[in-house]
Amino acid sequence: MPAEHTPSQAPGKTQRSAIGSFLVIASVLAVALVAMLVMQVVQGGDASSGPVAKVTSYGEVVAQLPLDKDSRQVVVCDEGTNTVVVEDGAVHIEDADCSGGDCMKQGAIDQPGNLLVCLPHQLIVEIVPAERAGSREPSVYTGREQVGADDIDVVAR
Ligand SMILES: [Zn+2]
87 C-alpha to center of ligand 1: Å? Predict the structure, then answer.
């Protein structure tokens, strides 16, 4: 309590230093926040920069599995189920109850454009580049355009 009474002798000075420390804290927080956002964007960009296994069932995309992350997706349709597994950067159909099980015999794929097809279940697993699967690419292109515009400006002078 006594500490709050003493500053009344020089209120202007106290107020200014209070604002100053507030600004310091605010700017530190802002920098930390921006750094976190940048980290998230960079990490997200990395995650979507690799190819993705797009799983389509009866013409509908039911899953998009990044190949750089091991995962397992069970796709259920009226005819039965397929278990799509991403492992070591490649995707394969591990289990299926279709007749013949041809989709399981197709092995693992890891290149964009490669396909796994289960005809009886109308299931397609297609590897697509991240540009088509992700939505963060446009920001990268904007950056390149800005760099290009700067170059033109410098040349004009
Ligand atoms: Zn099959």
Answer: 19
